[in-house]
Amino acid sequence: MVRYGLLSGVALFLVLAANQKITPLVAALTAHAQERILAEKLVDLDHDGQMEKVVKIKQDGKISVQIYHLYGFQDSVQSKLIAQYQFPTGEDGFIYDKQSITNLAFSDVNKNGQLEILVSFFDETTKESKVHTLAWDKNQNNLLKLEREY
Ligand SMILES: [Ca+2]
Ligand SMILES: [Ca+2]
């Protein structure tokens, strides 16, 4: 009986020790798996001659759009996150844009000389694609969802 108790105690210790080692590894693997790039495009949103990188990404079941500023540093191209918007939904969708099919398009919908980002979704209940428009506020380094559809 004493021997059995000692054995199960050792077994419990081994299980705990193994779990402590495994947990951070599993967390790292799942964190990586939960982030997926859906689209990545280079576009000059504000027509200033400098390309922006726009990324549509799925993180933790939600779709985010990110704008990166690109700059040269020691003979390589670096990118810096400058604006981000997260949608509560997570189903990627496709739209027709200039006779091609895409899930990330650009258009100056409010005619202010700067391109807006057209982000498409698939609505599982209506089985239709929906498009939301994001405007980049360059001064605030912000992405704003335009409620009005143009
Ligand atoms: Ca630009
Ligand atoms: Ca615009």
Low-confidence stretches: none
Total strands: the figure is 10
Secondary-structure content class: alpha+beta
**Rg, Cα atoms, Å:** 23 Å
CATH architecture of the largest domain: Beta Barrel
Number of domains: 2
Name the hetero compounds present. calcium ion
Order of helices and strands: HEEEEEEEEEE
> Which descriptor suits the 3D outline?
elongated
- Give the proportion of residues in helices: 10-25%
Name the strands of the widest sheet in spatial order.
Answer: 1-2-3-4
Main β sheet profile:
4 strands, antiparallel
Mean pLDDT: 84
Hey, roughly how much beta strand do the residues contain?
over 45%
CATH level 3 topology of the largest domain: Lipocalin
- What is the count of helical runs? 1
Q: Please give the CATH class of the largest domain.
A: Mainly Beta
Distance between the termini: 78 Å
Quick description:
This protein is an alpha+beta fold and 150 residues long. 21% of the residues lie in helices and 49% in strands.
